[in-house]
Amino acid sequence: xxxxxxxxxxxxxxxxxxxxxxxxxxxxxxxxxxxxxxxxxxxxxxxxxxxxxxxxxxxxxxxxxxxxxxxxxxxxxxxxxxxxxxxxxxxxxxxxxxxxxxxxxxxxxxxxxxxxxxxxxxxxxxxxxxxxxxxxxxxxxxxxxxxxxxxxxxxxxxxxxxxxxxxxxx
Length: 170
What we know:
Blueprint lengths: L3 E8 L4 H13 L1 H4 L3 H21 L15 E7 L2 E11 L3 H13 L2 H12 L12 H9 L5 E6 L4 E11 L1
Antiparallel strand pairs: 1-2, 2-3, 3-5, 4-5
Helix pairs in contact: 1-3, 3-6, 5-6
């Protein structure tokens, strides 16, 4: 198996059809098929959660390109025995504070605290104004041994480009 390589690299609009295509593409790669089962399950889970977060929470913009040429993207790269799942999409600037809070919270907790938080959040009643409990972020944090890296790049008064990277040991 190679030390470095791209398993999946996609840029464009995420639809139900695109989701299925991306999942199949990952499953069909030689690198994925040769992974040990626990690592394969963790990688697949993080990839699914990353796609789901884009599909549900990306700012809805007209056209596929987005603002200043930035469009939704997702990739899985193998580098030196690690797998990097990278995703990026537009978000509303009003949503950044809540998203940062959720990311910082999961990055500060150990695995046991993350599991407790998961149980607490999944058992909460959702409200009409709920934008998501962060279960996907909690799930990704449980599956990796590293902090979830993220950044926001301001695009205009209303939007920023949100990028996230989750690292898995292979």
